[in-house]
C-alpha cells in the first residue's frame, strides 16, 4: 500500500531540518503508528491524520531534537568555560604588560574579530532553533576555539621574554578548552 501524501509531506518537512538517520528512525515510528491506526479499522487518510497528529507538529519535533543536539551541548560548554579561560589570559597579559609588545594593530584587530565571530557562532549554536544551522555553527565554532586558543598560547609563549606562572595557567586553561572543543567537534560531526 502506498504511503499517504500527508505522511510523505510530514517526513519531507522533517528531512529539511534533521539528519537522514534521525528522519529514518522517525519514519519507522510513524509507519508503525499509521499501521496501528489502520489495524483499528480506520481508512488510510484518517489513519495518516491520526498518526501525524500523534507525532505532533514537525516544528515541535525539530525543536525537541535541536534542544538536545550535540551542537547545543558543545556550544554551551564552550560558552560556560570561555570567561574563565579569558580571565586567565587577561590576567597573564596584564601582568606581562602585553600592551607594550610590538604586535601590529591589524593582528590585534584580526584576533579580536575572530574571537567575536567564534563567540557569535557559539551563541547561534547554543540558542538557535534550527538543527542544521546549529550543527554547522557549532562545528565551525569548535574548530575556531581550538585554533584561537592554540594561536594565542603559542604566540604569547614565544613573545614573552620569560614565561611567568600566569602564562602557564592561561596556557593550561587553553589546553583544557582545546580538548573540550575537540570533543565537541567530534560529537557534532558524528551526531
Describe this structure in words.
The chain has 191 residues and is mostly helical. It has two domains: 5-65, no CATH class; 69-190, no CATH class. Helices cover 82% and strands 0% of the residues. The protein has helices at 5-15, 20-39, 44-55, 58-67, 70-95, 105-127, 131-159, 165-190. It starts with a helix and ends with a helix.
Could you provide a short overview of the structure?
With 191 residues, the chain is an all-alpha fold.
List the helices and strands and how they pair.
Elements: H1 5-15, H2 20-39, H3 44-55, H4 58-67, H5 70-95, H6 105-127, H7 131-159, H8 165-190
Helix pairs in contact: 1-2, 1-4, 2-3, 5-6, 5-7, 5-8, 6-7, 7-8
Query: How many separate helices?
Result: 8
The number of E-state strands comes to: 0
Please state the average pLDDT score.
91
Q: How many independent structural domains?
A: 2
- Helix fraction? over 70%
Task: Write down the oligomeric state.
Answer: single chain
Kindly, what is the distance between the CA atoms of the first and last residues, rounded to a whole number of angstroms? 33 Å
Tell me the Rg in angstroms: 24 Å
Strand content: under 5%
Order of helices and strands: HHHHHHHH
The chain-level structural class is mainly alpha
C-alpha geometry: rod-shaped
Low-pLDDT runs of 5+ residues are: none
Major sheet details: none
